[in-house]
């Protein structure tokens, strides 16, 4: 029993350390947009935004705590079959979602159907790492090759974006909008606001383009025979591909203008200040004033492009100038 207690203590320490990264969503542009809506007299928007964030966070929080132990290492540990079974029974209770489900089960305010639905979602997230596609090689390893010399950099950056919860927040909004549009329930007046929400959900990533590379990744960039603007272009190409894909059911031209503006503003924050980010969490932004400025400029660019398509041209010019100047700064960076 002492050995099981020691393993559970180590798992609890790891789970508690990892849970601290969950609060990164408070620095995300999507959360800040909800606060802005509440400030201007629409608290319901903040509730809706928090529900979306909570739904996205539910899945990474529902993972099996025992998955933190490599299976090869666990197989080598001198513990008996009885202790392994006991560890299997007790380890899920280190997950706060397990206690949440237990509290809902004894609560009379939750119907049985709703509890079964939540428990089913928890079970799916709990067992999904056991499937071959979810092994440590990564679910998104099979990103198809792209033309050009920056092929491998762009593919790597696409995989990094798909490992942020920002992408899944934008994906949820995009899929919901697509379904409503197919059913004829989405008015044309809602296309621009929803496009802006999708790009805002993705935009925090542009303020920390190197956050998922780690310090070792920054050193490797310094050793590459590639100019600074090309490194940024590879990051930007991945972001633009994802943003354009998610805004296709809505207003793709306005989405492209907002994405270019987000990158033009985010380059400075990405190059001037490195912020480490965690996979399968929401990206955290820099100073709140910088995020507000970014969202305001994105809204202006998207709105102008909807009414005057040629307004996309100034967005491209400003983006190109930002890429060039930030690329020069990147080349002078002390790696």
Summarize the structure in words.
By secondary structure, the protein is mainly alpha-helical. It folds into two domains: 2-132, no CATH class; 151-331, no CATH class. 67% of the residues lie in helices and 0% in strands. It contains 15 helices and no strands.
List keywords for this structure.
mainly alpha, 2 domains, 0% strand
Helical content class: 55-70%
Characterize the main sheet. Answer: none
Low-confidence stretches: none
Helical/strand content category: mainly alpha
Shape: globular
In angstroms, what separates the terminal alpha carbons?
49 Å
Report Rg.
22 Å
* Count, helices: 15
Task: List how many beta strands DSSP finds.
Answer: 0
Order of helices and strands: HHHHHHHHHHHHHHH
Mean pLDDT, all residues? 87
List the helices and strands and how they pair.
Layout: H1 2-19, H2 29-39, H3 43-61, H4 71-76, H5 81-90, H6 96-106, H7 112-127, H8 151-161, H9 165-182, H10 191-203, H11 214-223, H12 228-247, H13 252-272, H14 288-307, H15 312-331
Helix pairs in contact: 1-5, 2-3, 3-7, 3-9, 6-7, 8-12, 9-10, 10-12, 10-13, 10-14, 12-13, 12-15, 13-14, 13-15
């Amino acid at each position: 029993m002492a050995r099981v207690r020691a393993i559970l203590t180590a798992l609890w320490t790891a789970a508690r350390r990892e849970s601290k990264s969950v609060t990164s969503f408070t620095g995300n542009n999507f959360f800040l947009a909800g606060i802005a809506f509440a400030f201007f007299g629409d608290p319901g928007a903040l509730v809706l935004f928090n529900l979306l964030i909570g739904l996205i966070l539910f899945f990474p929080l529902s993972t099996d705590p025992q998955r933190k132990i490599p299976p090869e290492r666990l197989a080598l540990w001198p513990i008996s079959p009885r202790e392994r079974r006991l560890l299997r029974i007790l380890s899920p209770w280190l997950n706060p979602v397990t206690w949440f489900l237990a509290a809902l089960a004894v609560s009379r305010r939750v119907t049985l159907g709703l509890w079964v639905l939540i428990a089913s979602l928890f079970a799916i997230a709990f067992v999904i790492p056991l499937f071959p596609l979810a092994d440590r090689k990564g679910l998104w390893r099979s990103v198809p090759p792209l033309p050009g010399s920056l092929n491998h950099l762009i593919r790597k950056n696409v995989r990094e974006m798909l490992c942020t919860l920002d992408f899944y927040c934008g994906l949820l909004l995009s899929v919901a909008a697509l379904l409503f549009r197919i059913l004829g329930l989405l008015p044309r007046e809602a296309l621009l606001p929803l496009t802006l929400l999708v790009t805002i959900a993705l935009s925090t990533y542009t303020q920390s383009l190197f956050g998922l590379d780690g310090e070792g990744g920054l050193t490797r960039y310094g050793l590459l025979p590639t100019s600074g603007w090309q490194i940024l272009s590879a990051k930007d190409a991945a972001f633009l591909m994802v943003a354009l894909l998610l805004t296709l059911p809505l207003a793709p031209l306005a989405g492209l203008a907002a994405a270019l503006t987000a990158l033009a503003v985010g380059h400075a924050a990405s190059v001037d200040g490195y912020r480490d980010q965690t996979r399968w969490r929401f990206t955290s932004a820099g100073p709140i004033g910088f995020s507000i400025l970014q969202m305001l400029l994105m809204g202006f660019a998207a709105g102008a492009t909807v009414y005057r398509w040629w307004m996309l041209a100034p967005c491209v010019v400003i983006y190109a100038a930002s890429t060039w100047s930030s690329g020069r700064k990147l080349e002078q960076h002390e790696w």
